[in-house]
Specification:
The protein has 384 residues and is mainly beta. Helix content is 5%, strand content 42%.
């Protein structure tokens, strides 16, 4: 018994260390060019404030112990926040790549956190307490709540959190208590088709896609359905909204431009292969990647094709736009810089792992996660 107790005492400190810890010293606040949410804006437009010109050079790399999910790294001030499929949250110095700290939260985190000041709201898959609020300055949890299996990035809007679960329920949650104000159930969900599409917002409508093939628009205050539109096949990508138009693709490769307030379809485009990522928006264009390895640029007004560039492998994540350059990764372990006006490939780099996560751009760097557990930071070769 004494031997067992001695081993137990020795084990307790090791377990405490294994859980990690993350506390960000003040000041911790967003700069004008921060990438503080998935897609950078509530409309998920994937456009950076400042440019990073190719060719690029590697500034640093950091092991974050596992690949990331379908969200993106977040960059707030001088801090990079990266979640992974092991349920960990890592805080990294954006300038040096040095680890500030890390935290083991639960099971797989497949989206990005939502951020409100110094508080993170994190959705977790395969966990009983699947939505947590964590204070980065105090280094403590504020609350943990049960909302089913979550594989999305929560949307933070008007002091509320909006997200769906894999059972087909969509929630509006109070940020202070973690309790829900309302919930919406997919109609005729007898086959338990779920929600793996992160929400976006325009005006007072929150919008998301679902595996039943429909896009839904709900009143953010009441949860009442404003409109829905059935696209014909499951939707996994998060929609994006710009200038009153919602853009979204589905699993059979049909891409839609829809009036965000009425649900009327402006135009649609057959991309020829599945679309799993949110689009991005260089000036007057919409960029979409497909599982056939094609990056399409469409005219935002009418959906006509401006150009197509073959990248040679599956594109699962969004392109991110920096000036007249779009950066996009593939499952062939390649990162490309593509000129948005012509589709010309300006630069290419072979990485150690596949790119399944959308990059982020802030502070003169582009941050790219690979599925071999590395987070990479690139800068322009012309930058000192």
């Amino acid at each position: 018994m004494r031997k067992l107790l001695r081993h137990t005492v020795l084990l307790l400190p090791l377990l405490a260390v294994g859980c990690g810890g993350l506390r960000i010293p003040p000041p911790f606040k967003a700069e004008s060019d921060s990438w503080g949410m998935f897609g950078r804006t509530p409309g998920r437009t994937n456009v950076a404030e400042q440019g990073v010109e190719p060719p690029l050079k590697l500034a640093w790399e950091r092991d974050i112990t596992s690949g990331m999910g379908a969200g993106s790294p977040l960059v707030i001030g001088n801090v990079v926040l990266a979640t992974n499929l092991r349920g960990e949250l890592h805080g990294i110095d954006a300038k040096t790549g040095k680890r500030i700290g890390w935290l083991n939260i639960g099971d797989a985190i497949k989206g990005s956190p939502a951020v409100d000041g110094n508080v993170l709201y994190i959705a977790i898959a395969n966990s009983r307490e699947s939505l947590v609020a964590y204070d980065l300055l105090d280094g403590k949890y504020l609350w943990k709540k049960e909302y089913g299996d979550l594989e999305v990035t929560p949307l933070f809007f008007n002091d509320r959190l909006y997200f769906g679960n894999t059972s087909g329920l969509f929630f509006c949650v109070d940020k202070e208590t973690g309790d829900h104000d309302w919930r919406f159930r997919l109609s005729d969900n007898s086959t338990r088709k779920g929600i793996r599409s992160s929400a976006t917002v325009d005006g007072n409508l929150v919008m998301f896609g679902a595996e039943d093939g429909s896009i839904y628009a709900l009143d953010a205050t009441t949860g009442a359905e404003a409109w829905s539109y059935n696209t014909g096949s499951p939707i996994f990508a998060a929609p994006a909204v710009i200038n009153g138009t919602l853009f979204c693709g589905n699993s059979t490769g049909t891409f839609f431009a829809i009036n965000s307030q009425t649900g009327n379809v402006f135009w649609q485009f057959d991309a020829g292969a599945s679309i799993y990522a949110t689009p991005s928006f260089p000036e007057n264009l919409v960029l979409i990647g497909t599982t056939a390895g094609k990056l399409h640029a469409l005219n935002a007004n009418d959906g006509t094709l401006a150009w197509t560039t073959e990248l040679g492998s599956v594109i699962n994540s969004s392109a991110v736009v920096s000036g007249n350059v779009a950066y996009v990764g593939t499952l062939k372990k390649e990162l490309y810089a593509v000129q948005t006006t012509t589709g010309a490939i300006l630069w290419k780099e072979t990485l150690k792992g596949r790119v399944k996560t959308s990059p982020a751009i802030a502070g003169g760097k582009i941050f790219v996660a690979t599925d071999d557990k590395l987070l990479l930071a690139f800068t322009s070769k012309e930058q000192n």
